[in-house]
């Protein structure tokens, strides 16, 4: 019985070490987050059309864009169990054009070409203030393979910290996850669904 308990403890410790080491393995030797190539095999959380926050607005005549949000499967499973995003959580935001009248479609919009790709990571050791870091993989030449964390002056930090319903995430836009957060009591106490981003 004692041996079985020691084996269980060893396995739990090994799993915890693997989990805590995982975020570091996603960074290159320059400390840049490597762009995940398999993110479309992750859990798809939601899609929004024409999403803008605060003073940001689409340019006149610009078609609305689709935002697709993906999260790592292990983070999704933990959130569905606890209502909290675990350390090492990585989100990918994929922005695509919206297209009218493509193929046989004569109403509504479908997703088109790639516009942008961003990431958000929870790592309290690496990102001391707030525990989250934000990245963009876009450049004038197209997508880059790795990206440095955006500086704290980037607007995403203030927007997420003020307006994220669960921690610094916009879980209010993920219907299934928002229900879990409400049941688990992890929605921020000061979350106001009617407040608009500044």
Rounded Rg: 19 Å
Any idea what the CATH architecture is? 3-Layer(bba) Sandwich
Return residue spans where pLDDT drops below 50 for at least 5 consecutive residues.
6-21
Could you state the CATH homologous superfamily? Cytochrome P460
Stated plainly, the CATH topology is called Chalcone isomerase
What is the CATH class? Alpha Beta
Condensed summary:
The protein is of the alpha+beta class and 198 residues long. The protein is 27% helix and 26% strand.
Describe the overall structure.
The protein has 198 residues and is an alpha+beta fold. It has a single domain (26-184), classed as 3-Layer(bba) Sandwich (Chalcone isomerase), CATH 3.50.70. The chain is 27% helix and 26% strand. It is built from four helices and nine strands, in the order αβββαββββββαα. The strands form three sheets. The protein has a five-stranded antiparallel β-sheet with strand order 2-3-4-5-6. It has a two-stranded antiparallel ribbon with strand order 1-9. It has a two-stranded antiparallel sheet with strand order 7-8. Helix 2 crosses helix 4 (175-184). The termini are far apart.
Sequence-ordered SSE layout with sheet pairings:
Blueprint: H1 2-25, E1 33-34, E2 43-49, E3 65-71, H2 73-82, E4 90-100, E5 109-122, E6 132-136, E7 138-139, E8 142-143, E9 146-147, H3 155-163, H4 175-184
Antiparallel strand pairs: 1-9, 2-3, 3-4, 4-5, 5-6, 7-8
Helix pairs in contact: 2-4
């Amino acid at each position: 019985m004692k041996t079985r308990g020691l084996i269980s403890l060893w396995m739990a410790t090994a799993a915890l070490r693997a989990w805590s080491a995982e975020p570091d393995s996603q960074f290159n030797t320059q400390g840049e987050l490597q762009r995940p190539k398999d993110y479309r095999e992750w859990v798809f959380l939601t899609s929004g059309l024409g999403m803008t926050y605060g003073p940001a607005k689409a340019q006149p005549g610009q078609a609305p864009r689709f935002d697709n949000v993906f999260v790592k499967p292990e983070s999704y499973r933990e959130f569905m169990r606890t209502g909290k995003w675990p350390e090492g959580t990585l989100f990918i935001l994929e922005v695509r054009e919206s297209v009218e009248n493509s193929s046989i479609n004569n109403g509504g919009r479908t997703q088109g070409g790639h516009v942008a790709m961003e990431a958000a990571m929870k790592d309290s050791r690496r990102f001391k203030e707030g525990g989250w870091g934000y990245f963009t993989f876009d450049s004038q030449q197209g997508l880059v393979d790795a990206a440095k964390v955006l500086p704290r002056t980037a607007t995403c930090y203030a927007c997420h910290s003020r307006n994220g319903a669960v921690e610094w995430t916009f879980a209010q836009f993920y219907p299934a996850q928002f229900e879990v957060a409400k049941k688990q009591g992890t929605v921020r106490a000061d979350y106001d669904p009617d407040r608009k981003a500044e």
